[in-house]
Structures are given as C-alpha cells and as structure tokens.
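Board notes (copied after class):
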Amino acid sequence: MNTRRVIQACTAVVLVPLAEQVLRAGQVHLVRIPEEHANGLLAIAFPQLLEVDWTHHCLALVVLAGLLVTHGPAR
C-alpha cells in the first residue's frame, strides 16, 4: 500500500475545508458580505453542505481511517 498517497488524501481532506473557512471569513470581514450569505466556493456549488453538520463528521472519519491505514493496527 502506498502510504504517501493516503497521507496526501488526508491532508487534502483537512486543508480544503480549512481553506473554505478562510474564504468565508474573508467574505465576511474584507468584502463585508453578511455572514448568512457568505458561502465560500464549495457551498455555491453544493448549497446542501451549509444545511447539515454531518459533513464535518464524515471528514473526520476519512482522516481517522487514513491515519489508521497508514499508522494503526491495519498496517
């Protein structure tokens, strides 16, 4: 198994939502878009992401699975 690819995928899973939050913060504080209308890039394409909190739990599970595959008992 190529652990480097798994670690890269987990890193992307962590960094994409973080970049989305930074973009939303920029929309609110720099462009002065009201917070309820500041959606970022992903929420423009997928507005259902704003309505549910399960996306954060799914991201955490993907990262946990990746860490277990690369460093845990599965190895």
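Comment from the instructor: The helical segments are 3-29, 42-45, 48-51, 54-71. Residues 3-71 form one domain.
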